[in-house]
Amino acid sequence: MSESKNILPCCQSAKKNKQTGFLSGLVSGLIPHTFCILFIIFSVLGATSATFLFKGLLLNKNFFYLLILLSFVFATISAIVYLKRGQLLSVKGIKYSWRYLTILYGITIVVNLLLFFIIFPLTANYSSKKNQQSNNGTMKQSLLTLKVSIPCSGHASLITSELKKLPGINEIKFRLPNIFDVSYDANQLSAEQILNLNVFKTYKAEAVKG
């Protein structure tokens, strides 16, 4: 009986550590990307004044590298707080808490990967269609494939948001890592006008074959 009494608290503690590590990793991975998530939400809602506030951050090429670094800084702070509370802030304590630390940093990495490879590309393509008609109800649909020098998919929403402001843009499709298929009405817009968009002064764009 004494053996089972000892095992139960140990199992409960391990389960609690897993839950704590998971939640801490989730928070550490998401919090640094709050600005980008808000930009996407406001962009989808059409709140141009709000998106303008975050546009300056997204025009910084190193912005998302800083966010990734911050996510690991938050994870490390969470780990230190956890270890200190359990009086485990030592080499021996770190070895004892390896499961918690593995889950914490593992979830932080997974959240970042999900954001950059799934969430950001999906949101960049969300609501990218613009139902527009050219003069006299006729449309001369053309396709321009752009290769844009964005550092990561986190900047894709900024590019699609800026492209959508042009008259004659019908649809924009983002493809990893940095390809944008732009469908536009050639009666209203030219490829040169698209390439002269202001945002492409920061993130260079070139026309490529799809």
Amino-to-carboxy terminus distance: 70 Å
Strand content: 5-15%
State the secondary-structure class: alpha+beta
Mean pLDDT: 82
As a whole number of angstroms, the C-alpha radius of gyration is 23 Å
Number of domains: 2
- Strand runs, count: 4
Low-confidence stretches: 1-12, 131-136
Provide a quick synopsis of the model.
With 210 residues, the chain is α+β, with helices and mostly antiparallel strands. The protein has helices at residues 2-30, 34-45, 48-58, 63-85, 91-96, 98-125, 156-163, 191-195, and strands spanning 141-148, 169-175, 179-185, 205-208. It starts with a helix and ends with a strand.
Describe this structure in words.
- The protein is an alpha+beta fold and 210 residues long.
- The chain has 2 domains: 2-125, no CATH class; 135-208, Alpha-Beta Plaits.
- Helices cover 58% and strands 12% of the residues.
- It has a 4-stranded antiparallel beta sheet.
- A hairpin with a 3-residue loop joins strand 2 and strand 3 (179-185).
- Helix 2 runs antiparallel to helix 3, helix 4 runs antiparallel to helix 6 (98-125) and helix 6 (98-125) packs parallel to helix 7.
- The longest helix has 29 residues, at 2-30.
- The chain is elongated and about 70 Å long.
- The chain starts with a helix and ends with a strand.
- Mean pLDDT is 82; it is low at 1-12 and 131-136.
Task: Kindly list the characteristics that best describe this protein.
210 residues; 8 helices; four-stranded antiparallel sheet; Alpha-Beta Plaits; single chain; alpha+beta; elongated
Topology:
Blueprint: H1 2-30, H2 34-45, H3 48-58, H4 63-85, H5 91-96, H6 98-125, E1 141-148, H7 156-163, E2 169-175, E3 179-185, H8 191-195, E4 205-208
Antiparallel strand pairs: 1-3, 1-4, 2-3
Helix pairs in contact: 1-4, 1-6, 2-3, 4-6, 6-7
